[in-house]
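Aim 2 progress update. The chain analyzed this quarter is reproduced below.
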Amino acid sequence: MAEHEDRRPRQPIEHKSVATRAGVVVPVLRQWPAPDEAADTVPRADESRLEEAVGLAAAIDLDIVSATIVSVSKPRPATLIGAGKVEELKGIVAAEEIGLVIFDHPLTPVQQRNLEKELGAKVLDRTGLILEIFGRRARTKEGRLQVELAHLNYQKGRLVRSWTHLERQRGGAGFLGGPGETQIESDRRQLQEKIGRLERELEAVRRTRSLHRSKRKKAPHPVVALVGYTNAGKSTLFNAITGAEVLAKDLLFATLDPTLRRITLPHGTEVILSDTVGFISDLPTHLVAAFRATLEEVIEAELVLHVRDMANHDASAQASDVNKILADLEIDTADADHVVEVWNKVDLLDEAARAQIATAAESGSHGLKVHLVSAVTGEGIEALLADIETRVAGSVSDVALDIPPDSLPILPWIYENASVHERTDREDGSVLVNAGMTTQARAELRRLSSRYPDVRVVSTAG
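Predicted C-alpha cells:
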C-alpha cells in the first residue's frame, strides 16, 4: 500500500463532442414549375430556401461553415449539378475541411455516391436530413417506430451495388450449392423483414389510438387540431392556451410527438387541443406514410386551426405547402366550417405590414375565417377561443335561471358548463343565476330538466 495516497476528489473528465463541419448547397432548378407540380403552387424565394436549409442543418447541431445557392439549368443524371460546380464545391470542401455536404434537394443513390466520391465528404440529401432530425426529436415509442419505418423505406431505395462485399453468396453446402442470392438481395430481404415488423407494431399503435379516440367520442369532447408549417409557433400557441410546457423553440421541428390537452373554453365548453408535427415543403413521402397514425388526429378533428407565421416573407408559399399536405390527408382546406386560419407572430410586424394583413384578414383567406394573434403576447387569443367555442358548441346566449333550494345540486354543473356573470342568493334558499350558455350547454340543460324539474329559465337574451 502506498505511504502517501492522494485522497483529493477526482475531477470528472469532460467529453466535449466536436460539431461536424458542414456545407449546405441549395440547387435551384430553373425549369419551374415542374410538369407534375400543381398550377396553384406558390414559388419559394431562393434565399428563403437557403435560410430554411441552414435551419434544418442547425437543428441537428452541425457547424455550418458554407452555404451556397447553385443554379441548375439542366439536372445531370450523375451528379445533379454541373461538373464545374462540382469542382468549385470540391475546393470549398477541402479549404473549409468540411466533413458533410447537405443538398437541399432529393438525390438518387447514384448521384449521392458520385458526389461523395468527387467531393471527398459525406453527402446527405433533404430527405435524409429530415429523417435525421426526426430521429433525434422522437421521444415516444410511437414516434421512434414511425421514424425507423420511414428510415428503412428510404434506406431500401439506397441499396446500390457499389462495394465489393455485394458479391453473390454461394447457397447450399460444400461446392455443389447453387449461386444463392446476392448480398444486395440479402440486405434488401432483411430490410423488408424489419419493415414488415415495424408496420405490424404501428398497426397495433393505430388500433390503440383508435380505441382512445372512441373513448373520447363517448365523453363528447371535440378535438381541435393545430397544424402549420414547422416553426410557425404552434407549440407556443398551444402552451399559451393550455398552460402546458411543450417544447417551444425558434427551431425547425422542435416538436415531433403529438400532444393533447383538455381545455375549458370561456363559457364552459370542454375541447381537446392537439399539437401536431410541423409540416414542411417537399416532406418525404416515407414520413407522410409513416406518420399517418399520428396525423389521424388531424383527420378526425372537429376543427382544424391552420397556424401561419406572418412575420415570414414566405408565408404564402408555406401555406401552400401545408394545404397540399392537408389535401393529401383528404381534408377540404376550403371548408370554412372546418378550417380556421390563425395568423401568428403579428407582434413582430411593423405598423405598415400589420395594417396590410389586417385588411387581408377582414376579407378572409380563400373564404376562411382569419384570426390575427400573437402566441407570445396573448393578443387575439381570447377572440380565437370564443370563435372555437361558437363553432363547436353553438352561439352563446345570456340566460337567467331561478333555482329553488331542492335543485341547488345543479349549481356545480352550471359553473362548469357556463360563464356565470352574477349570482343572487335569496333568503328562502333559492338562487338566481345570470350566465352565458352555449347552444350545446342549453341543450344539455333541457336534458337535465327531468332531474331538476323546478329549475326555471326566467329570461334568455341572444
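Confidence is low (pLDDT under 50) at residues 161-180. The first helix runs from residue 46 to 58. These observations will guide the mutagenesis experiments scheduled for the next reporting period.
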